[in-house]
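Example (one chain per record):
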Amino acid sequence: MLKEERFDKILKMLSRDEKVNYSGLAQELNVSEDTVRRDIEQLHNNGLLSKVRGGAIPILKNPLSFVDRASYQTDKKEIIALKAQQFIHDGQTIFMDGGTTNCSIAAKLPIGIKLKIITNNIPLVQVLSNHKNVEVIFLGGIYNTQTQTTEGVKACEEIGLYIADIYLLGTCGVDSKFGITASFFGDSGIKTAMSKAAKNIIALANEEKLNTAEPFKVCAMEEVAVLITDLASNDSRLDGYRRKETKIV
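Predicted structure:
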């Protein structure tokens, strides 16, 4: 049985029974439990089910699922900001670029969290002013009044001095073929430099950004570790982005 056929059967069994376990799936699919575990892990990372101890449950049945906890949220940026919190931990070095989504993420950080944040986003600095344990490194360069960010050669050179654990990438366009793209040349330079200097790229995109491509290339979808959207992770509109390299949240 092909892997894709196993995936289809696992999801159909899950829809019918509302819970599956490793041993039962192994017997039903005539494969080892190790194979089932890998299948469940990949389906979980692609947002199609929730992995639990011993097996899996449907994504919307998970009491820890963001979809249930934030169903009352109407602001798409707020939804993305809440989803992003699970990837931010004490001691990390983080790139945060321009835009209001990163400001929304920063506004929800625990007040005592210890981080090093490297940014070109001027409004973000004010948002972080009450976080005494967050070291903010602001990038130099040319000030862009339209985006309220710095950009240019100096800013990109300064980015190259650091290695970030994660890069919270505010997207302009996200497309399964063309990858992450930017609307402005100066912004694309910042995003590309941060992408190259980060261990993991976490792309932030509301529904309107999906399946769009702007003029300036940032990185391929294969380079994105996590794609966070305002949609439920098992929404069919995200099917084109499901790949082994990318976790969908």
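Caption: The first strand starts at residue 20 and ends at 21.
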